[in-house]
Amino acid sequence: MRPEHAGQVLAVYRLGIDDGNATFETSVPTWEAFDAAKLPEHRLVALDGAGRVLGWAAVVRVSDRCAYAGVVEHSVHVHPDARGRGVGLALLDDRRADAHSRSPARVRQTDAVQRRVHEPLQIGPARALR
Predict the structure, then answer these.
(1) How confident is the model at residue 27 (pLDDT cuts 50, 70, 90)?
(2) From start to end of 14-71, where are the E strands?
(3) Which of 21, 77, 83, 11 is nearest to 45 (CA)?
(4) Which of 2, 14, 32, 58 is in the most buried spot, having the most CB atoms within 10 Å?
(5) What's this model's pTM, rounded to 2 decimal places?
């Protein structure tokens, strides 16, 4: 994900907000705010043959507390016209391969869509360790 993708990335984000299923956010941030919040080494875009953004994935730290070192929240947003074509799965799989090289992945799967998307990647649900 590079600055030249900013407009399209934020447009896809806006579509996700409008759908009501992609995020708890209610407004699209500026590119500067988005850029500052996302970890730079963990950003991906899926492009079509013409260079249009079909979807994106990015990661934020859950907390600055040392107890949460390495714990991140990922976001994957896919343009409505590209849904059902494996774009989200490809973005997640790339993220999983990168993250899994560091530590096993677990996902807080709160709805059926998240469970369905994460299942082929063999990413299980997160749970509290006691």
Answers:
(1) very high
(2) 43-47, 53-61
(3) 77
(4) 58
(5) 0.73
Q: Could you give the CA distance from residue 96 to residue 89 in angstroms, rounded to a whole number?
A: 10
Return the half-sphere exposure (C-beta side, CA atoms, 13 A cut-off) of residue 42. 24
pLDDT tens-digit map of 34-52: 999 998 888 999 999 999 9
Report whether pLDDT(5) > 90.
yes
CA distance 85 to 91: 12
Which domains, from first to last, does the chain contain?
3-125 (3.40.630.30)
Where do we find the tokens 């074509």?
85
Tell me how far apart the alpha carbons of residues 126 and 4 are, in angstroms, rounded to a whole number.
35
CA 88 centroid distance within chain: 9
